[in-house]
Amino acid sequence: VLENQDLRDSIKPQKVEFHSLNFNTTLHWQPGWAREARDALYFVQYKVYGQSTWQNKDECWGISSHACDLTHETSDIQEPYYSRVRAALAGVYSNWSLSHRFTPWRETMIGPPMVTVVHSNKSIIVKLQAPRSPYKRKRGSKIPMTNYYDLLYQVFIINNLLDEQHRVLVYEGKDKVIKIQDLRPGVSYCIVAKMYVPMLDHSSAYSSRQCTVL
């Protein structure tokens, strides 16, 4: 019996965590510390905080991977959720490992906007597109993150003559097309942008840089 107890403890999943970007939500965990834990299978359940019964996640029932997509199960973005994972090996089941409480609206990371740059003689036109959620409208298009949050675009310009790292904020607001004027011809400029959530004081990562020479 002791050996089973040891095995049970040594294959128990570690660090059960939700990772979420634009409401694409995945549960991640690490295998137990036993060397044999590499061969364990995993079982995932989830529930809304306050519910008494756990739901099985059928697609993540007896899987060998260390991640499980719970995007669909956490689609009520204001609700707090829990998930838990157990491992099985050679007919022995570990205890459940519980995640922290996860509220999508509060905790999902928002991705950067898509940036397109068009230049005219002394100005740059910047076109911005907010990231999209995995949730769809009736007609099938994905709902942008701007539907769920009051989001601002932050646009920065990098003058490559001066300093690659020096980003100057040139615009903050909701416009999807902005014009940056009075720039110097023959100079290489790069644009990067972020999404900013004033209410939560969260920023996205920077977009990839789009560069142009006037």
UniProtKB/TrEMBL annotation:
Residues 108-212 form the Interferon/interleukin receptor domain. Residues 9-96 form the Fibronectin type-III domain. Pfam families: Interfer-bind, Tissue_fac. Its main location: secreted. The keyword Repeat applies. Keywords: Disulfide bond, Receptor, Repeat, Secreted, Signal. The gene is Il22ra2. The lineage of its organism: Eukaryota, Metazoa, Chordata, Craniata, Vertebrata. GO terms for molecular function: cytokine receptor activity. Coiled coil: none annotated. Receptor for IL22. Binds to IL22, prevents interaction with the functional IL-22R complex and blocks the activity of IL22 (in vitro). May play an important role as an IL22 antagonist in the regulation of inflammatory responses. It is found in: Secreted. Belongs to the type II cytokine receptor family. This is Interleukin-22 receptor subunit alpha-2. GO terms for cellular component: extracellular region; plasma membrane.
